[in-house]
Amino acid sequence: MIQNNTDHNHESIVKKKVTINELTIGDDSVVVMAGPCSIESRAQINSIAQIVKDNGAQILRGGAFKPRTSPYSFQGLGEEGLEYLAEAGQKHGLLTITEVMDSSDIPLVCEYADILQIGTRNMFNYSLLKKLGKIDKPVMLKRSFMATIEEFLLAAEYVLVGGNEKIILCERGIRTFVKFTRNTLDISAIPIITKLKGYPVIVDPCHAAGRSDILVPLSRASIAAGCDGLMLEVHPNPQKAKSDGLQSLNFTQFTKAMTSIQRAIQFMREEKACE
């Protein structure tokens, strides 16, 4: 049973871990997933993969199927994009994550990606979640921008009851009345999810902020709150990105951000050692 905010559960929950090859998510380290919102070309994803690898990130992200608000916006390269993503990941020694939007695409995406992502618009797509419960690959479920924490955790249960325990949750901000950011990052979700269910929690500050200038402090705050990883958007030229350019870091910004993030990780590691 999921506890609500008036019924606090003080029982110890075992922290869950998801292991992919030699990388474990949820083992007190902080992993970084980084890459473009949309894969635009082979050259683009390869140049980004190099920067991602050089700066210590472990997972290459990139969208091949893009659910956009407008049907006239760039919708992604589809299977071609998946091929570019897998190729870049293998070349640079990175795991890969990409979004699956339709249950019919699950086998295809499984061929190319190490982790399947469920986007905010599909968190309530229970038929899709049920099918993801039948696969033997990690699933990262993003919180809907209008979902409560309880609804978020119950969505994860749809994957779990299908038999797939390789579940990662992603806090990416929720819609509020605030106009300075795209969404509002719910920092409280990190320790609450950890206490209630023990799932690894990744934070996507890019979709929460919708702007690149505050990504570093949001990332550091997430690390301090106990997140298991971060998902960052990187693009060689954000001004010309086909999607989400305003919230993407260019290569110089990403390098500086990773330096700050690594310092925050080290600080929290030392804090835990003193507890």
TrEMBL record:
InterPro entries: Aldolase_TIM, Class-I_DAHP_synthase, DAHP1/KDSA, DAHP_syn_2
EC number: 2.5.1.54
Gene Ontology molecular function terms on file: 3-deoxy-7-phosphoheptulonate synthase activity
Coiled coil: none
Keyword NAD among UniProt keywords: no
Residue ranges of domain DAHP synthetase I/KDSA in the record: 22-257
The keyword Signal appears for this protein: no
Alphabetic keyword roster: Transferase
Stored PANTHER family: PHOSPHO-2-DEHYDRO-3-DEOXYHEPTONATE ALDOLASE (PTHR43018), PROTEIN AROA(G) (PTHR43018:SF1)
NCBIfam families given in the database record: DAHP_synth_Bsub, PRK08673.1, PRK12595.1
Protein name per its UniProtKB record: 3-deoxy-7-phosphoheptulonate synthase
Protein's gene: aroF
